[in-house]
Design brief:
alpha/beta, five-stranded mixed sheet
């Protein structure tokens, strides 16, 4: 069947193959989970920090296709050349990477397999081939997500299905805009791309009234010190670079106005009097 539109513009879903990857859910239950997570991000207040992400996706020239994640598989988003065929694994990483930059692998997974050296990892075969440098034109994205898989982590920081989906939508947006660049990041964030996604998801979580926030990309443990000022001071350079990036300008300036306890983007862009820096 054709890809099915969701309630969010530029985001589609296709669960036609769910019988091949899941024995615990049928297609209608999976689609309900996707719709419910999107409704939380778009229609059920508070959503002032999540709606800007969906609005930027709606205005992008590329599209997102949500597919069922296998049971026990981590939700993830991959840049693809298109979403209208069944070849969803077609590599679109070059277009998702900034123009002239080498495509980098995003380190993740068990600690034994993760890059803990703070050294960027080149994708195999892309390292020094000048014809494989990024174009920055943006790619379509295939996002693998099953809402029901995250119900067991509802009480964990970053564990709610809507937070998990928002995290992946931040990744997807940056791929769509051609600015995804997985340079390494310390403190178990793995890459700056994971830092960006966790940062926005934590602001959304704070807006929803939670005080425990996600610590990093290695699991879903609590951030020991959720003080906004302390966090901004610790990661000021990374946050300022993110907020002033051309492709992120509208998104970050919109999120900066969100009133919640934890919003380091506000620290980056507004002075104490609430005026733009």
């Amino acid at each position: 069947m054709p890809n099915k539109p969701t309630i969010a513009a530029n985001i589609f879903m296709n669960g036609d193959n769910i019988a091949n990857v899941r024995k615990d859910l049928d297609q209608s239950a999976w689609e309900w989970g996707v719709d419910n997570a999107l409704k939380n991000l778009m229609q059920i207040a508070p959503f002032q920090s999540s709606q800007p992400v969906l609005q930027q996706i709606a205005q992008a020239r590329k599209r997102i296709l949500i597919r069922p994640a296998h049971a026990g598989e981590e939700t993830h988003s991959d840049p693809v050349a298109g979403i209208d065929s069944y070849d969803y694994t077609t590599d679109g990483v070059i277009d998702a990477t900034p123009q002239g930059s080498p495509p980098l692998a995003c380190a993740e997974g068990p600690v034994a397999n993760r890059d803990l050296t703070s050294t960027p990892r080149f994708r195999q075969g892309d390292s020094w081939d000048p014809t494989r440098l990024g174009t920055g034109t943006g790619s379509d994205v295939c996002l693998y997500f099953t809402s029901q898989d995250h119900l067991k982590e509802l009480m964990k920081a970053g564990g709610r299905p809507d937070e998990v989906l928002l995290h992946e939508l931040v990744h997807s947006l940056r791929m769509m805009l051609g600015c995804s660049f997985c340079t390494s990041m310390p403190d178990d964030y793995d890459t700056v791309e994971e830092f960006h996604a966790i940062l926005i998801a934590n602001i959304y979580r704070s807006e929803c009234g939670y005080t425990n926030l996600r610590k990093n990309h290695f699991g879903k443990s609590d951030l020991p010190d959720p003080d906004e000022g302390h966090f901004y001071s610790a990661y000021q350079n990374t946050i300022d670079t993110f907020t002033h990036q051309r492709e992120m300008w509208v998104l970050t300036h919109t999120i900066a106005t969100v009133r919640c306890t934890f919003n380091p983007i506000r620290r980056s862009l507004l002075n104490p009097a609430g005026q733009w820096k």
